[in-house]
Each structure stands twice: as C-alpha cells, then as structure tokens.
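Catalogue entry: protein

Sequence with per-residue tokens
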Amino acid sequence: MQNQHLVVVVDDDESFRIALVDSLSSLGYDTCGYASADEFIAAAADTTCHCVITDIHMPGMNGFELKQHLASRASAMPVIMITARTEPDLESKAAAVGAVCLLRKPFATDALVKCLDRVLNP
C-alpha cells in the first residue's frame, strides 16, 4: 500500500520517535520525525504534512500548545496525541483542543492505524 499522505511524528523521546517513524514507514506511510514542537514549526513542516502525531508532554511547547498554535494559524490539520501519562482528564483536555485521537503508550499499532485511516481517508 503506498500512501500519499505525509505523517509527522513530534516526540522528544528519540528511540520512540524513530521506532514510530520506522513502523509507519513500513506500513506505507510517508513519515518524518521532529524532536520538538519548536523544531517542527521552524521546519515549516505544517505546510506540507497531512497529520501530526504528537506527544503531549515535551520540553518547551507541549502537544496541547502545538495544537493550539496550529489552530491559531487556521490549520485544520488533524492531530493525534500520544502520552505515557495516566492522568484521567487527558482525554477531555485533548478533545477540548481538537485532537482527533488520544493514545496512551504503549499503544497497539492497529489503534494508531485506525486513527490515521479515519482522518486521512474519510
């Protein structure tokens, strides 16, 4: 399956980011990764990608702030949030900023693919 959508992974955990980029690439997605939201924004990657998968808790701009930044630029790009945290209110916070999915690490690849399919192939 060749996918024409660029999916960006923003996560400060290098080993996780690389593994997720590699996993998505093996599934046919065009992917790249950034170590921070600031790096992603500086690269102007939001102008070329079709979906962002971002960790919620990162140094500097967090995932919620990244989603709000994109919204302030009138971007309707779907954002999937991921986290290893267990706070019970994260789902409602993610929904409030407009995230399309919240997945808790470790998550099944199938769960991520379902989120991606829902937003990239409506």
In short: DSSP finds five helices and five strands in the chain. The radius of gyration is 13 Å. The CA atoms of residues 6 and 49 lie 5 Å apart.
